Amino acid sequence: MVSFSSIINILTILGSLMLFLFGMKLMSESLQRISGNRLRNIFSSIASNRLKAITAGVVVTGVIQSSSAVTVMLVSFVNAGLLSLSQAIGIMMGANMGTTVTAWLITLFGFKFEFTTILLPVLGLALPFLFLPGARNKSLGEFLIGFSILFLGLQFMKNSLPGIDENSPIVAFITSISSQGTGSYLLFAAAGFLITLLIQSSSATIALTFVMCHNGYIGYDAAAAMILGENLGTTVTANIAAIVANRSAKRLAFSHTLFNLTGIIWALLFFRFLVGISYNLADYITGNSPIESEAIVPLGLSIFHTGFNVLNTLILVWFIPSIKHLLEIIIPLRPNEKKSFKLRYFKSRFMAINEVDILQAHEQISYFGRHVAYMFNLIPEYLIEKREQKSEKIQKRLYKSEEQADELDREITDYITRIAENDLSEANSRKVRAMLKITDDLESIADQCLQMERTIRRKNEASAWFTQEMRDDLFELFNLVKESLNTMNENLAGDYRPGILAKATEYELKVNELRDKLIQSNKLRLEAGEYQYKHASFYAELLNQCEKLADHVINVNQAIASNIK
């Protein structure tokens, strides 16, 4: 029968673990808010270079302190067509290396001294940042608070595990397992996998492993084997996220599992050698073997953890094309399945990834902007096309594009609405409001393009042909609207930076002035009897529709500007 004191001890350990997880969550979210704008720059510079992709994975994971957040982000990016599978595999490999940063933080700060001695000074340092103006200062304060809570949880975890001696039942149990040779490594790796599967945070599980080994509950070899299992356990998050995603995203999620599983297989084959290397390096650095000095156990395990991930990446990075081909065989497209991309919202159980979600929405809205610009570019071509078959093809492209615009509007609006349900900072709330307004105006631009198509079609059916002068004037206005759309898309693709309204406003004024001038000229020509009323009517309708479209363009630019601090 379990005693009351045993229940209290278990709850104390769980409470310590939850403190650690909460501290990591707070650190991750604050770091995302601080570095969110830089994430886009990192990923936009990836291209197809494997080294850049891996570096991006290391940097982003090291910054936001969550490999789970990065892999879920990659799944969503591939799912939306914002990254290719090959690029995402490279980033994912880098993310595996980046996740070792937390282990090194624990090693350097968690076991060197009693963190409780500097806990209050660190919290005191955070206090001014919470009251300084600006979201960045508040995020810095929250980072320091999260940092403190994380190591406070680690400290409690160390102290909550009771001491054990050689007569303890747990020592006898571990000794019996360890006597099974290679089989014991598999058992401990399986234990690491299962614990990570339950906690959904490899960093928290590794911290727990460090503490157990440091306090003598498990041996050094067992802890190293558990770390291997924990690397596999962290891949489950991405696979869960990919359940509702398309085949490309499912391939990426499975590639994460395949990558770490392959690493575990070769690492177990050379397990004693790898453990020996980590012994020797820790001994060389400190002059003590991890087995002889429990104080440097975390150092040896951190070396093992980092070495495994770095070596696994160096081995498999050359096989990315082969891995991609293998994934296409394992997870093929279903019959008649198109390579369509959907914007999906993925919710992490323990880690909010608001900055990542907003980044993806930003990218998809930028794509939406390019889509409506493509629609408008079809209008001049449709206006002058006299061949019936070619004209029908352009018409079908316009209607198909408008259907896609409606779908984009629904998906992006739903996605942003889901983000808005989270606990957002003031800056992120402003971004969400701006994005909803932008999406609405982009859909209105697509509607205006379709209205212009209908006007041109009715004009052709009524045999109301424009003079060369009317066509030239229309094309002058079309070019101004086209330039305003290009400026809008430059702003959408950027980081919502200051100064974006000057050029956009200039084009808006030019469109309005030219529209007014052409409307007046149209009235004078009609009064002079140069053409019939039906010609003038369709001509004026197109002029006004261009001006309305340009109004939505400036609305988009103003929404971007309203998002800037």
List keywords for this structure.
single chain; 565 residues; mainly alpha
Secondary structure: elements and pairs:
Elements: H1 4-44, H2 50-64, H3 67-79, H4 85-98, H5 100-110, H6 116-131, H7 135-160, H8 169-178, H9 182-199, H10 202-214, H11 220-233, H12 236-241, H13 247-269, H14 271-286, H15 297-316, H16 320-330, H17 354-384, H18 388-420, H19 426-461, H20 468-493, H21 501-527, H22 533-562
Helix pairs in contact: 1-2, 1-7, 1-17, 2-4, 3-4, 3-13, 4-13, 4-15, 5-15, 6-7, 9-10, 9-11, 10-11, 11-13, 11-15, 13-15, 13-16, 14-15, 17-18, 17-19, 17-20, 18-19, 19-22, 20-21, 20-22, 21-22
Structure description:
With 565 residues, the chain is mostly helical. The protein is built from 22 helices and no strands. The relative contact order is 0.09. The mean pLDDT is 79.
Short summary of the structure?
The protein is mainly alpha-helical. The chain has 22 helices and no strands.
Mean pLDDT: 79
Would you list the SSEs in sequence order as H and E? HHHHHHHHHHHHHHHHHHHHHH
SSE class = mainly alpha
Report the biggest beta sheet as strand number plus sense, adding barrel if it closes. none
| Broad shape | elongated
Rg from Cα? 30 Å
Number of helices: 22
Distance, first to last CA: 61 Å
Helicity, as a percent range:
over 70%
* Count of extended strands: 0
* Beta-strand residue fraction: under 5%
Which regions contain 5 or more consecutive residues with pLDDT less than 50? none
